[in-house]
Amino acid sequence: MLQQDPTGTASELSEFERFVTELAVSFVEARPEKVDEVIVNALARLAECLNVDRCSWWQVSGLVEDAEVAHTWTRPEFRVLQSGESASMQVPWILSRMQQGEIVSYARAEDLPSPEDRQGVARFGAKSGAAIPFMVAGQFRGVLGCTTIRDHREWSPAVIARLRLVTAVFGQMVVRQECEERFADAVSELQELRDTLLVENQQLRRRAKSPATQSGIVAESQAARLVLEQVEVVAPTGATVLLLGETGCGKEVFAQAIHRMSERRGRAMVTINCAALPPTLIESELFGRERGAFTGALSRQIGRFEMAHDSTIFLDEIGDLPLDAQVKLLRVLQEKVIERLGGGQPVKVDVRIIAATNRNLQKAVEDRAFREDLFYRLNVFPITVPPLRERTADIPALCWAFIEEYSKAFRKPIDSISKESIAALSAYHWPGNIRELRNVIERAVIISKGPRLVVQMPATGAETPANSNRLDEIEAGQIQRVLEQVGWRVRGRGGAAELLGLKPNTLDSRMLKLGIRRPGSAH
Q1: Less CB within 10 Å around the terminal CB: N or C of the chain?
Q2: Which domains does the chain have, with CATH numbers?
Q3: For 366-375, which contacts have Cβ atoms below 8 Å and span 24 or more sequence positions?
């Protein structure tokens, strides 16, 4: 039985116009993540309006201008088209007509001139159908297909005109979605570029502020000269370097020197503190992540290794790297590839690695806290940076480097430093090393009242009772000594928490428990 088209009465036309208006509004208001759902709902409403059994939107992809099912709605009792089904494999003649911008409709499958198309239509279960192409500037971009499965029907010019209108609305929505996706990709790429430039600029600013980069490494002492000789030997080779030494002894300064003397000096060295990142984030920070790798990962982000491509990466506090990340780092050293979190494609990187730690890595290997194979990969050229107490001859030059930095920063011209201050600075044992010296000079410049700098030495603090074996007294004495060395500054770079290897909140709790208070503070 041949089903007749609607007569096109005024009420039917008004209802269809209302449907098209609501369709356009729903597309405009649809959030990106809801677009697919809105399209399927619109196809269902279109099928209801036209009394057909299946409506599908076919998306054109690739240079061959094939059309594949992108969205479809079918009455529950009939076969649902699968996403990705190809028109070129099912109805090649119909596809060739639509590629030329022609509308194809048939009341019976027997009306189609191509045997292949008749067989394809039969596989779809269609008795009648209409296919309206969507063209943009003469380019074939999509198809709106409507078919009947229960009965045959005619496709009048009035119905075809309505389908053309709906096709235009669908097509514009799809084009808008593609534009938004391309825009989002472009924004993501710009964000990656911005992140890269931000990290490089941060590195450049750090280098510009560092006294080691302004006046060269201070190496007037024999101990520092020996280290500098090792740096000059290994820098041009590109070999992996492991810097060992106490906290605050200047390992990053020597890493910068190695980078500046290498062939990679044209790009900024990338620095990351392995102890400063939570274990849940360190993998994505080092190796990057793909969009959707975890909840909240809305865009791709490259990691520090990709940022350091053709340059140097400085892994500070390598001994605190989690074991899972150690495995991936070992692969970088062995194969020169990384994999972003949530991705499966290896990414080639050409990066020189300089690692640093204040821990005994051999002991960590014995305790199974550090991989033995990674240790030997990093330990190619170990350099031990001496503590400040072993290079006291460098203290005057270091003081002047810091004085120049802070006098300029605080707009306090300093043209001399007292001999007594230099003598006291040279005699002090410096448990916090160069970082502690920097803090002492910074404080001295802040409180200075003239061009001659007089340095107030750190107080020795309340000593632990002689021969005390009480753990709380030993702990309290150590915490108070470190607090006095850094001017009672708990947080931040060079603060007491960092020197003690504690989180700031943990140190606050221990101070409260042990009754440690800053002199002059309210009890």
Answers
A1: C
A2: 2-181 (3.30.450.40), 210-386 (3.40.50.300), 388-458 (1.10.8.60), 463-523 (1.10.10)
A3: 369/319, 369/323, 370/319, 370/326, 371/323, 371/326, 371/327, 371/330, 373/330, 374/326, 374/329, 374/330, 374/333
